[in-house]
Amino acid sequence: MGERPRIRASFSGGRSSALMCEVLQDEYGDTHEIVYTFCNTSWERPETLDFAHAVDRHLGLNLVWLEAVVHPGRKSCTHRVVSYETAKRNGEVFDAVAAKYGLPNQVFKWCTRELKTNVMNSYARSIGWLPGTYDTAIGIRADEPRRVRRDVAERERIIYPLVDIRYVTKEDVLDHFEGQSWDLKIEEHQGNCIACYKKSDRKLYTLYREDPANFDFPVRLDQLYRNVGPNNVPGPRKMYRGYESAPDLVARFEAAGPSYRPPIYEGGCSESCEVYETEQIELFPA
Ligand code: SF4
């Protein structure tokens, strides 16, 4: 028997991504060699890790849990294989990468690359999957105005099972998981890295109101690493939109009354943090 086509599936820890894994198992489980990976940033809610573990068991994915390993100099992050049990949960991995690259923000967007893309690439190399010998599946849905640029997608062999194999919208995803005992146990705004700088101000404010301790970690990162790396403006690097640091953000949220309603801005990792996302484009422009 000849070699089966290879797919590297990037499970992000969200519902859409879980459904993507199910679609791949259904459609290609018997015909393709599929490796499922989950890159743990260590700044996610424990429920996200619980969900990843539940998806793995439910679908029989043999999910490979990965974390970034930082190197000095120009060498990108490589990987270490961990497990549900041993995955870091207190920001350690994110912290180690920030110590080298400085604070991530809308200008210095290293985090998805160093915490996920390069980590997955390192793992693929370690199992002998050379670039160009496999497709990479990511869980962007048909209704999301976010895709990788076509030229990048072609070059990197990115595939979108929730667009091209099965047409799946957000509603389909929610219907699919409704009533499942192993569904993700958190609200959308609580997903991915807890106080990710790409979340809308409204989501960040909601997270602050729910528990101010959600910002302890970015405040600590700010204290430790604001002067690490170059900056595009004079002064320290700041993580949040509008050149706001984590302490600035906390002070603004603290000063605002409970009736404060920050503007909605949807974008970036508001729903899922996908590898290779290089820009936001309208998939179905009005
Ligand atoms: S969720 Fe946000 S902070 Fe975390 S890796 Fe993705 S872009 Fe970076």
3D architecture notes:
With 286 residues, the chain is α/β, with parallel strands linked by helices. It has a domain at 6-187: HUPs (Rossmann fold), CATH 3.40.50. The protein is built from ten helices and six strands, in the order E-H-E-H-E-E-H-H-E-H-E-H-H-H-H-H. The protein has helices at residues 15-28, 46-59, 92-101, 111-126, 150-156, 161-165, 170-177, 201-210, 216-225, 246-255, and strands at 6-11, 33-39, 64-69, 78-82, 135-137, 158-159. It has a six-stranded mixed beta sheet. The N and C termini lie far apart (47 Å). Mean pLDDT is 91; it is low at 279-286. Iron/sulfur cluster (SF4) binds at residues 41, 104, 111-112, 115, 192-193, 196, 198, 269, 273.
